[in-house]
Specification:
Layout lengths: L3 E5 L4 H13 L2 E8 L6 H16 L7 E8 L1 H5 L26 H16 L3 E3 L15 H15 L4 E3 L7 H23 L11 E2 L2 E2 L5 H16 L1
Parallel strand pairs: 1-2, 1-4, 2-3, 4-5
Antiparallel strand pairs: 6-7
The structure holds zinc ion.
Zinc ion binds next to helix 7.
C-alpha cells in the first residue's frame, strides 16, 4: 500500500525537519504553505530553496517529493493584530502568550490541510507543533491535535492520521532528529535554508542560521543549537 502524506511546511526549522521525517517514512509526500499576509514572507521564500536542496542532495527522497501547495488565508490577518501581521512590536501579553498569537491558527491550518488532503487523496497529515517549546499556544497541545483528528475524521468521513513528530522534544532534539534522518548535510541545509526569526532578518548569519539573534524565536533556536552542539 502506498502511504501518502501532506506536510505543513512553513519554511522554518521545525517544519523542515518534519518534511524530512515524512520523506523517510512515507512513499509520497506533498507540502503545504499558508500565505496569510505575514509581515515577513521570507519563510515562504525559504520553502522553495529547501525543497530544491532535498531534490539535489537526497536521491532516495527526491522521487517521493510531490507537489507544493500554497493556500492564501487573508482572513487570518483580519482576526489578528500581532507582530507577525502588522508593525506591532513583539511582546508578551499579560496572560503569558506572545502577542504573535493568532487564536486557533493551527486549528485553521490543519482544517485547510485536511480539506486539501481529501482532494489530493493523501492520508497522513504532518505538522511540527510542539508542547515542549510551545510558548503557551493552546492549539499546539497534544490533546488539541488528537481532538481535531477525531473532528476532522467525523466531519469529512475519512481516516486521516495527524502526526506531530516534534510534540514531546525540545529544539536540541529537533536538530538531533534532523541529523539522524539526513546526516550533517540535512543539518547544514536547515541552518542555511530555513527561517525562524520573528523579525524576518536574513542579513545576520549565526552558527544556527539567519536571524536578528534577539527575538524570542531566535533566542529559542540559538539555545537549542547550543545544546545540540554541546551534547550532540
Ligand atoms: Zn529574530
Amino acid at each position: 500500500m502506498t502511504e501518502t502524506a501532506l506536510v505543513l511546511f512553513s519554511g522554518g526549522q521545525d517544519s523542515a525537519t518534519c518534511l524530512a521525517w515524512a520523506l523517510d517514512r512515507f512513499d509520497h509526500v506533498e507540502t503545504l504553505g499558508f500565505d496569510y499576509g505575514q509581515r515577513h514572507r521570507v519563510e515562504l521564500e525559504c520553502r522553495a530553496a529547501f525543497r530544491d536542496g532535498i531534490v539535489a542532495r537526497y536521491p532516495a527522497w527526491a522521487p517521493k517529493l510531490g507537489d507544493d501547495h500554497t493556500l492564501k488565508l487573508d482572513a487570518l490577518a483580519a482576526v489578528s493584530d500581532t507582530a507577525l501581521t502588522s508593525e506591532t512590536e513583539i511582546a508578551m501579553r499579560e496572560d503569558g502568550l506572545p502577542n504573535t498569537f493568532v487564536p486557533g491558527r493551527n486549528l485553521i491550518f490543519l482544517t485547510f490541510a485536511a480539506a486539501l488532503a481529501y482532494r489530493r487523496g493523501l492520508r497522513h497529515i504532518v505538522t511540527g507543533v510542539c508542547e515542549t517549546d510551545f510558548s503557551g499556544y493552546p492549539d499546539c497541545r497534544d490533546d488539541t491535535i488528537k481532538a481535531l483528528q477525531v473532528a476532522l475524521n467525523l466531519g469529512m468521513e475519512k481516516r486521516f492520521v495527524l502526526h506531530t513528530p516534534l510534540m514531546w522534544i525540545d529544539k536540541a532534539a529537533t536538530w538531533r532528529m534532523a541529523e539522524r534522518l539526513g546526516g550533517k548535510p540535512l543539518v547544514d541545509m536547515i541552518v542555511a535554508d530555513t527561517h525562524t526569526c520573528y523579525l524576518g532578518d536574513r542579513t545576520h548569519r549565526h552558527a544556527w542560521g539567519f536571524g536578528c539573534g534577539t527575538c524570542p524565536a531566535c533566542t529559542l533556536r540559538n539555545k537549542g543549537w547550543m545544546e545540540y552542539q554541546a551534547h550532540g
